[in-house]
Amino acid sequence: MATFFVAHGAWSAGWAWKKMHPLLRERGHALVVPTQTGLGERAHLAGPEVDLETHLADLLGALHCEDLHGLILVGHSYGGMLATVLADRAPERFTQLVYLDAFVPQDGQALIDLVPAEAQRSWPADDWRTPPNPLSPDMSPEDVAWIMPRRVPQPRRCFTQPVKLTGAGARLPRTYIRCARTAPIDVFLPFAQRAQREGWRYHEMDASHSPNVTAPDALTRLLDGLARGSA
Question: Which domains does the chain have, with CATH numbers?
Answer without folding.
Answer: 3-228 (3.40.50.1820)
